[in-house]
Specification:
The protein is α/β, with parallel strands linked by helices. Helices cover 48% and strands 16% of the residues.
Length: 209
């Protein structure tokens, strides 16, 4: 009803986050797309892996049949969804079933389980830690769901060697969220939230070395 398209809003938000991160001067940033193109899920985290990325953030905005759904959410990888909403999102987002270049739908069950168990446990823990950190930094700046961190079996997060989250920045089907996402101020607040979380994330990592 508001004329907004998810892919357009998402790209604007992603570019705002990129600009804010680059302005900090502390990190290198790469977008998986700079224009109106579609990348399959494997290509998205594949870009990050080729660049030897240290953190992968998949930016989205959600849409439902109800205008009542509101607030941002961060999803991290889990083979079991944390709730029905997480399961709904996973079903919608997943277009492929691939990890580390191996199609899990075709791999033997024991190979699939070994790939997930051995390569992802530490990464999944790091992803969850970053999601909680993002929630802490974002709460004063933008509307969040009460249960901000959720878990789902999202294929886009299955790069096994890099902390990864899917950041649903709000609902374009909700008038208030849509106005926030479509405003420069709203996008700046989202970008500031992510930048603060990223800076703390890497500061902690450096301190632990």
């Amino acid at each position: 009803p508001n004329g907004l398209r998810e892919k357009d809003v998402t790209l604007k938000v992603a570019k705002a986050i990129r600009d804010e991160l680059l302005a900090s001067g502390r990190v290198r940033v790469a977008l998986t797309r700079n224009d109106d193109r579609y990348l399959i899920l494997r290509e998205r985290y594949g870009v990050a892996r080729r660049l030897k990325g240290d953190l992968f953030i998949s930016i989205h905005c959600d849409s439902t049949g109800s205008e009542n759904a509101t607030g941002a959410t961060a999803y991290t990888l889990s083979e079991v969804a944390s709730d029905k909403e997480a399961a709904r999102l996973a079903a919608r987002e997943n277009k492929a079933d691939v990890i580390s270049g191996v199609n899990l739908g075709e791999a033997p069950a024991d190979v699939s389980s070994i790939l997930i168990d051995l390569t992802q446990r530490e990464t999944m823990n790091a992803s969850a830690t970053f999601a909680r950190l993002l929630g802490r930094e974002a709460r004063p700046l933008m509307p969040l769901k009460a249960n901000f961190h959720r878990m789902a079996s999202l294929m886009v997060l299955k790069a096994p060697d890099m902390p990864s989250i899917l950041f649903e920045t709000g609902y374009i089907s909700n008038p208030q969220d849509a106005a926030f996402l479509d405003s420069e101020e709203g996008r700046h607040r989202i970008a500031e939230s992510v930048t603060r979380a990223v800076e703390v994330h890497f500061a902690r990592r450096m301190a632990a070395r």
